[in-house]
Amino acid sequence: MMSQHPADDAPGQRRPESDGTATRPANGVHAPRQRVSMADVARHAGVSSQTVSRVSNGYPGVVDSTRQRVLAAMRELGYRPNSAARALKSGEFRTIGVILFTLATTGNVRTLEAITTSAAREGYAITIIPVAVPTQDGVHGAFTRLGELAVDAVIVIMEVHLLDTSTVTLPPGVPVVVVSADAGDRYSVVDTDQADGTRQAVRHLLDLGHRTVWHVAGPEESFAAGHRADTWRAILESDGRPVPPMLRGDWSTESGYQAGLQLLRESGCTAVFVANDQMALGVLRAFHEGGRRVPHDVSVVGFDDIAEASSFIPPLTTVHQDFTETGHRCVEGVLRQMRTDAPERGTTLVPTWLVPRASTAPPPA
Amino acid sequence: MMSQHPADDAPGQRRPESDGTATRPANGVHAPRQRVSMADVARHAGVSSQTVSRVSNGYPGVVDSTRQRVLAAMRELGYRPNSAARALKSGEFRTIGVILFTLATTGNVRTLEAITTSAAREGYAITIIPVAVPTQDGVHGAFTRLGELAVDAVIVIMEVHLLDTSTVTLPPGVPVVVVSADAGDRYSVVDTDQADGTRQAVRHLLDLGHRTVWHVAGPEESFAAGHRADTWRAILESDGRPVPPMLRGDWSTESGYQAGLQLLRESGCTAVFVANDQMALGVLRAFHEGGRRVPHDVSVVGFDDIAEASSFIPPLTTVHQDFTETGHRCVEGVLRQMRTDAPERGTTLVPTWLVPRASTAPPPA
DNA sequence: GGATGCGATGTTTACGTAAACATGGATTAG
DNA sequence: CTAATCCATGTTTACGTAAACATCGCATCC
Is B247 in the same domain as B272? Predict the structure, then answer.
């Protein structure tokens, strides 16, 4: 009898472990997983467990001799606080969940890294919550820490509307901050200044003398991609420039390469703004293979400023995103919401700036 | 009275939160963070909380009408199981901690990604435990989930011996699997077949007719880097080839570029084996800028086979690492240790294979 | 010098869950 | 028809911690 209940996705439903066979240790003969509780420490130190608790939490009101005795007992017994009990009692998990769809894009990784660092500094741990959308391979029943109470707050690094069709649902009442997505009306959003970054990139190319700028956009469902594309178009239009047809990739290098192949056929193309550095790498390769010299024949600007960008051939002019700052503000945001217990909305913008390198030049004469 | 206790790093010691000011909600006036317990659901459904527990865990022995009633109550009340209570009772956190030093190297990220996916499939969540070594900026007192009991197992993606000087310590009694490090005598290790991968890379170059192969190694403290370098040297020696001086980078593209600049000065260098793809990118750039054509003048082989490698200029011949398999075996390993309660040792090797692309060719005539 | 207060420590209790055990009604075997 | 079962459900208890409250002794104040 596999789980046939029609309501398998009901709140609190939990996957019975693979049929219940051979799941537990054969029997309890093995050494019981080290269990040293406060009570043990207390007994060993000749104090009450409450005093141990005070020492453990660094609270005042414990005389130094006692404190030393307790600390010694902790060390001798190898005591480690049980965070489950602590969380149960305090209602805080000191954990922030980070929901993301993939670690394949550098932007996500950089953001995650920054969040982790910032959170650690505040005494919070990060739990990764991978999201599988139905169209993916069937990672069905994937365990998510959101179905249950296990995180104090959530940071979402993906398009919120995609969450609706995914395996996780944002529980109500949990502080949320969303990165680079269109959710300012529902959640607090931290975003890099996509518009300004795009403006700098396109302006840079136009100022170099290019008649217009082509664009390789990110995937349709990405808000950041859309924002960059919209801004690109708006600038060209407001400047009275022709707007070339837009190409689309999926952030991957390979998709950038494909877009580059298409651009090779456009003899009029002298400048390209690519929505991220990874795709730009593919574009560069296509141009190289097609004999189109960068930046002599065509200029390329990327977005992200990943560490590798300065070693592309040629080194890539790109828009720098301050992922550290973004991650920091995310953590700050959820912590603030936790403390005030008040959900927030609206968007915070993190500045971006252009990093001119060797992939841009005036158009060929 | 800041925390002056000399034993700040004692077990169980916990950083008092930034002086205790303005940490808690001003007062408890706000809506109490949604608290729906099993008891609430039970009351609402007119059953005992134990029955709710059974339904929640998908246990048998609940008649369908009752089950439906409970599920309905859960939905209506918005019940979410409290994982802290569950963990406290069961002693399992259903969480695996992943210790790593940086997310800047693609290898780490790919491994982490694979681990996350595999773990999710088994119903485990991943907590990231960033490690700060003292030489880093002073992320002192960074909270780690290892000081306390909060993970069921640990996967280490870094050199174990570096842990000794870091802010985290591996607690005893917790299942551990180490990735690509020299710890087979203390822990279970999952490693890609560094030696075989290196052999294939070097052999490939020699077979193409190169007299010898230069090497750009990873950082000194890296076991993987050392292993690759040792194998490289051993092959050359056993084959009676001259062993050129070894260059060293730190896995970063920039360091690869620096190594490439040095190699430019070696007119006799026709083949280079670079210890990872990111550094290889830097080497390619240096060669390009120096007018050394790849692969016409010099051949380059990388290691990792990151997604971008096929779009390097030229597309990089490299050794493919099966990160998915590696991650999978890590999770498998810790779960097995958890179930049997028996620590393991020894090394598991994941096969690697050469992916020939356009960066290698016979030496110039 | 006795009331006062405060600082150090102990005692009680509740957090939410799930294992272990208990109950009671229905079904079936003899 | 009764006893033995069995199944659905209820009751009790313990997990480790920390808040709240209680106590006790000593120093201070007038």
Answer: yes
The distance of A86 to chain B (nearest Cα, Å) reads 8
Tell me A82's DSSP state. Answer: B
Test B125 with A113 for CB contact under 8 angstroms.
no
Protein residues in reach of strand D (CB < 7 A): A 35, 37-39, 49-50, 53, 56-57, 81-82, 85-86, 88-90; B 46-51, 54, 60-63, 65-67, 85, 88-89
- Tally Cβ neighbours within 10 Å of residue B314: 22
**Contact criterion met (CB < 8 Å) for B7 and A68:** yes
Same domain, residue pair A178 and A232: no
Residue A9 CA and nucleotide C27 C1' are separated, in Å, by 34
pLDDT at B101: 87
Q: B128 forms bridges with which residues in the sheet?
A: A126, B98
pLDDT of A29: 32
Looking at residue B33, its pLDDT comes to 53
pLDDT at A182 over 80: yes
In angstroms, what CA-CA distances link B225 with A45, B158, B159, B242, B323?
Answer: 47, 12, 11, 21, 17
* Residue A139 pLDDT class (50, 70, 90 cuts): very low
Helix (H) / strand (E) element for B70: namely: helix B64-77
Q: Which nucleotide is nearest to A88 (CA to C1')?
A: C15
Nearest-angstrom CA–CA distance, A59 and A61 = 7
Query: Which tokens hold the place of A89?
Result: 């009692």
Total domain count, chain B: 3
Q: Which residues of B touch A120 (CB under 8 A)?
A: 130, 132, 139, 142-144
Q: Could you tell me where the beta strands, DSSP code E, fall in A135-245?
A: 153-157, 176-179, 188-192, 214-217
For B58, the domain range is 36-81
Residue of A344, A315, A365 whose CA lies nearest to A174: A344
The Å distance, CA of B19 to C1' of D24, is 30
Least confidently predicted of A6-15, B22-31, B287-296: B22-31
- Closest residue in chain B to residue A315, using alpha carbons only: B285
Asked whether the beta carbons of residue A88 and residue B88 sit closer than 8 angstroms, the reply is yes
A170 CA to chain B: closest CA distance, Å? 12
Judgement on whether residues B76 and B167 belong to the same structural domain of the protein:
no
The whole-angstrom separation of Cα A318 and Cα B56 is 51
What would the pLDDT profile of B158-199 be if each residue is shown by its tens digit? 877 777 777 677 777 889 999 988 887 889 999 999 999 999
- Is B15–A123 a contact, with Cβ atoms under 8 angstroms apart? yes
Same domain, B317 and B202: yes
Indicate if A199 and A315 belong to the same structural domain.
yes
In this predicted model, which residue has the larger pLDDT, B249 or B18?
B249
**Taken in order B310, B313, B317, B320, is the CA torsion positive or negative?**
negative
Q: Which residues pair with B320 in a beta bridge?
A: B304, B353
Q: Over 60: is that where the pLDDT of A295 sits?
A: yes
pLDDT digits (tens, 9 = 90+) for A28-72: 333 445 578 999 999 999 999 999 999 998 888 889 999 999 999
Supply φ then ψ for residue A110, to 5 degrees: -60, -40
Q: Are B202 and B176 found together in one domain?
A: no
Q: Which residues of B touch A172 (CB under 8 A)?
A: 34, 78
Rg (CA), chain A: 26
Candidates B53, B113, B50, B40; CA nearest to B79 is: B40
Q: Which residues of A touch B78 (CB under 8 A)?
A: 11, 171-172
The model's confidence at residue A149, banded by pLDDT at 50, 70 and 90, is confident
| Average pLDDT over chain B, rounded to an integer | 86
